[in-house]
Amino acid sequence: MNQYKSVGAVLLASVLSFSCHKHFTVKSNEYKQYVISNEVAADSSVIRYYAPFKQQMEAEMNKVIGTASSELEKSSDPETSLGNFFADAILVEARKIEPAIDISFPTTKGGIRNSVSAGNITVANIFELMPFDNEIIILKLSGAGVQKIADYLAASNGQPVSGIRLKVVDKKAYDVTVAGKPLDLNREYIIATSDYLANNGDDQSSLANPLERRNTGKLIRTALLDYVAEQTKNGKSITPLIDGRIVVSGN
User: Fold this and answer.
1) Which positions fall inside the 5'-Nucleotidase C-terminal domain (predicted)?
2) How far apart are CA 87 and CA 176, in angstroms?
3) Can you give the pTM of this predicted structure?
């Protein structure tokens, strides 16, 4: 090891010495643009190299892990079946880590990247739904902190949540309940979210300054995969659900 360090030191010294006495400037340059199209012949040696890995990946990604009874559609509505599925799944899986979790707020509507079609659900479908390596984070918030979440949900026309319900009038939150009970500003609540939101992603100030923070090491995507697989094991399909957890009213 010392021999390699000595050789490296000599080479470095030589380079430094050389660079101190020589100076190069670009006299001219030229480039040629190669257009990638169907006219470019495939390199068979490259194909042979990656083909086994491609086949293995496709076999894993095309694996069926569950079924959806009908489409879970991505939309901008205050409450969506896709958002409810996402948040409910994270609440169930996060409670396996911390049973005392009250609320799941794992993503915003923009963080859900694709709808889930009716029929078979594959591993690839979940990767398309959640392509990011975001981790489940557990936060302890004051009642006032949860009120900030409710205020954000109201002002932003709803987001995927579970365990919390509210009514919205003129973008203000009313009748906020957690686990069926009115929000108590004097107590503390446990929240499951993502590291992205917990780290102020999407300017998420409602989760700032928690009383406690716990990193779980479990990816949101893995939790979704586990949830769908467990539902299948129990003989259940993923069924779209709209239950009035966020109700927007007029004046």
Assistant:
1) 64-204
2) 17
3) 0.80
